[in-house]
């Protein structure tokens, strides 16, 4: 989720304030990294002690914590996948809309760098009647996406998805160039700059999703050339991700030249449709999202069908029906509530509570008990961490939704 999380990060930092936001980015990165070491430890316990091969995190939950806990893990994993599809659909709609506007707009003046609230282009013409970000473009996507996700095995998109690193690098460079162009705007009293903001749970919820990789970390590292360095390399990856979030989120927030309250939950929406660099970023992101979306749909139906039917290959009619339901869900959110900031923070808090702050800790407690390494201090620390995850989840419903 790093691509979509990068887009939301400036808004999320604005919700927390610059100082608190940057600190929370690295704290949440550390808190999210620690459970991955426990997952590696539990997998090693099963493989070395019980001689049981481990492929997925849910396998560990089923064998150590029982099938009921594995069901909970499956449901949260499915929720994560459908939530990711919703966010991707909203972003694809926005990118496609703004790309279309870039091609069309040549009549109304637009700022060269950043959106000026006083310059509002006329969107009452015939073009904008049929090219609307919420009412038409999300539905046009159906004709582009639905046939693709109905492919039984979208292995071709697996190769293309690696191109996503290009869009991420470009976004980071794009933000750095804007920071250098604008300079920092933190002293003006009329820009609503804050070092600390009471809405910081928006950031912690978003970061729970931004650092969320725990349900597939074993599959991603199964072919590691030096398994003994898995934890080290994973820690480096989390650190690099945190640095990227701090640069994009904190740097953009500090440099934003207008009121900080105007920072959108997709920072590319703060730029004119005619901004060339923003146009390139939108094209790269649209390509990335379009190639990853079929993989999300495939993983969703693979997990669901295996849970229901005990096999992945089922009648093609079921594939089409499930995909239609998924697309329908995406359309509802894209047309009625395309607020990816709120969606990501709430979804992230749920996934974080289960996959980051609870299941890996319970796994380690059970493994430690079985190997005779009980510790009251460890128990107290784990209870505290689970409490943090629960507080993060509850806080998402205390702070107001954005309309």
Describe the structure.
This protein has helices at residues 2-16, 18-48, 57-65, 67-104, 126-130, 137-149, 155-161, 164-182, 201-210, 217-221, 230-255, 276-309, 316-336, 340-356, 359-370, 376-395. It contains 16 helices and no strands. Helix 3 packs antiparallel against helix 4, helix 4 (67-104) packs across helix 13 (316-336) and helix 7 (155-161) packs antiparallel against helix 12. It starts with a helix and ends in an 8-residue tail after the last helix. The model is unreliable at 110-119 (pLDDT under 50). With 403 residues, the protein is mainly α. The longest helix has 38 residues, at 67-104. The radius of gyration is 22 Å and the shape is globular.
Quick description:
The protein has 403 residues and is mainly alpha-helical. Helix content is 70%, strand content 0%. The protein has helices at 2-16, 18-48, 57-65, 67-104, 126-130, 137-149, 155-161, 164-182, 201-210, 217-221, 230-255, 276-309, 316-336, 340-356, 359-370, 376-395.
Say how many strands there are.
0
Unreliable parts: 110-119
Radius of gyration, rounded? 22 Å
* Sequence of secondary-structure elements: HHHHHHHHHHHHHHHH
Structural class: mainly alpha
Chain-averaged pLDDT: 87
Biggest β-sheet description: none
Fraction in helix: 55-70%
Rough shape?
Answer: globular
Q: How many H/I helical runs?
A: 16
Strand share of the residues?
under 5%
Please give the alpha-carbon distance between the first and last residues. 23 Å
């Amino acid at each position: 989720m790093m691509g979509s999380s990068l887009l939301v990060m400036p808004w999320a930092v604005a919700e927390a304030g610059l100082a608190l936001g940057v600190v929370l980015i690295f704290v949440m990165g550390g808190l999210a990294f620690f459970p991955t070491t426990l997952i590696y430890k539990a997998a090693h316990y099963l493989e070395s002690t019980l001689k049981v091969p481990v492929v997925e995190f849910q396998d560990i939950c089923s064998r150590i914590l029982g099938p009921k806990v594995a069901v909970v893990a499956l449901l949260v994993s499915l929720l994560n996948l459908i939530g990711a599809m919703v966010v991707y659909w909203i972003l694809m709609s926005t990118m496609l809309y703004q790309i279309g506007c870039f091609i069309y707009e040549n009549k109304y003046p637009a700022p060269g760098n950043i959106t000026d609230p006083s310059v509002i282009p006329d969107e009452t013409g015939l073009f904008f009647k049929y090219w609307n970000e919420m009412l038409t473009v999300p539905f046009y996507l159906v004709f582009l996406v639905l046939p693709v996700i109905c492919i039984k095995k979208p292995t071709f998109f697996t190769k293309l998805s690696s191109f996503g690193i290009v869009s991420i690098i470009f976004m980071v460079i794009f933000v750095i160039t804007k920071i250098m162009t604008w300079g920092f705007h933190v002293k003006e009293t009329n820009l609503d700059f804050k070092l600390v903001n009471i809405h910081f749970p928006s950031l912690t919820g978003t970061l729970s999703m931004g650092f969320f990789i725990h349900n597939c970390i074993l599959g991603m590292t199964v072919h590691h050339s030096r398994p003994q360095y898995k934890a080290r390399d994973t820690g480096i990856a989390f650190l690099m991700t945190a640095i990227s979030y701090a640069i994009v989120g904190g740097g953009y927030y500090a440099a934003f030249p207008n009121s900080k309250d105007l920072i959108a939950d997709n920072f590319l929406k703060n730029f004119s449709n005619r901004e060339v660099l923003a146009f390139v970023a939108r094209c790269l992101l649209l390509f990335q999202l379009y190639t990853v979306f079929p993989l999300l749909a495939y993983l969703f139906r693979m997990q669901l069908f295996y849970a229901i039917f005990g096999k992945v290959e089922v009648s093609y009619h079921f594939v089409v029906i499930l995909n239609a339901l998924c697309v329908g869900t995406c359309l509802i959110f894209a047309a009625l509530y395309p607020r990816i900031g709120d969606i990501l923070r709430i979804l992230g808090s749920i996934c974080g509570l289960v996959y980051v702050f609870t299941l890996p800790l319970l796994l380690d407690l059970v493994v430690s008990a079985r190997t005779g390494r009980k510790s009251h201090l460890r128990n107290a620390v784990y209870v505290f961490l689970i409490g943090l995850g629960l507080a993060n989840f509850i806080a998402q419903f205390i702070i107001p939704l954005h309309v």
